[in-house]
Design a protein that fits this description.
This protein is an alpha+beta fold. It is 30% helix and 23% strand. The chain is globular. Residues 72-448 form the Circularly permuted ATP-grasp type domain.
Amino acid sequence: MAHAIFDEMGTPGREVRAAYRTLQSWLDETPLDILTLRREEAETFFRRIGITFAVYGEGGDPERIIPFDIIPRILEAAEWRQISDGLIQRVRALNAFIADIYGSQEILRAGIVPRDNVLLNDTYRYQMQGVAVPHNVYTHIAGIDMVRVGPEEFYVLEDNCRTPSGVSYMLENREITMRLFPDLFSRYNVAPVDHYCDELMRTLTSVAPRNCPGEPTVVVLTPGIYNSAYYEHSFLADQMGVELVEGPDLYVMDDVVYMRTTQGPKRVDVIYRRVDDDFLDPLTFKADSALGVAGLMNAYRAGNVNLTNAVGAGIADDKAIYTYVPKMVEFYLDEKPILKNVPTWRCAEKADAAYVLEHLAELVVKEVHGSGGYGMLVGPKAAKEELELFGARVKAYPEKYIAQPTLALSTCPTFVNEGVAPRHVDLRPFILSGKEIKVVPGGLTRVAMREGSLVVNSSQGGGTKDTWVLKD
């Protein structure tokens, strides 16, 4: 896994890669003060429409504007085909796995995934055992985090099968790029992303529950305005033309979900929920939850409502389960994986834990349930005290950690205070699964705005870029 850093535009002194040649010419002819002005305009736009993200633990106001880099990332059509085919294959396998572990558990019986890794996992929901879901789809909206380390080398870093966020930023990034740089945009043949919300609505209506009486009524269920992704919840509801609701807006009667409206009760058939499992139904999960709907799970089991993503889909987010996904592809689909995993050590296994403890300073160590860049050690960047503290944690609770090599994430040209400079990036494409599987061409490119940093998460100060997929 040792790689020189791959720059997607082309390293200084070498030939610029084909996809970036027009962009390079445009950068050469555009004065820096114009780029600075455009960046300020972008920030004003994001602030005006209220695109913020919560950054906790740094003091002050946690609600920040996500830094937006005005220079797009560009992917060739052939590169995207490889990614897209691999994503569709992976999500098919993940859905088959989730269906299996809440059904006949063949993969556990075959000994491919250890039984305890699933059944004793904090994200496993025994309440879903035997619940029939439409088309056997559990993760309707998946966000698969990917990194690139070479011209044709893409790796999956993690799977987000529960409630992946960030798609609103993907859409707003495109809108602002087209608005600020119409001349640059017109020089490229870029595949559109603005149909995402139409595709999302089609996906949600295609998974109507078995007892749906007619045209399904879809709603977006949000925990409320204090959630860090509330902007996205309201944005998606608005774009799909459906109601944004909170728990108290819904109630269950005779195992049917209704929404309170000014015209009286209205039946609800599909709930795109952005509320975690534990808070969905106080009669089934946390009894003190005020965010959910009492009786919702009974309506779900009865086939009178569908929840997207499915309850219990978070089992596939687990970073220890991630290590088995290539085997899932072979087990369920009888195919070779198109996309590779990053080599991973499972600290729950003694030999792996011993290796990790010996090489902490070289590795990235993550909590199996962690997200957002929290609970993570980047060994090469860590101080001695941090290494000792993390080592003690891994020794005490090895099953809570996995480790991976420090990848040389690819870089893209990024507009920073000093001018245009390379910064490390990753990519979160979004995959919609209903009757069909659709991948919108592009995704959310996250960029580490600090020089040398490999942490791209918005919650850790990372920014975002528009992602252009070129048409053939």
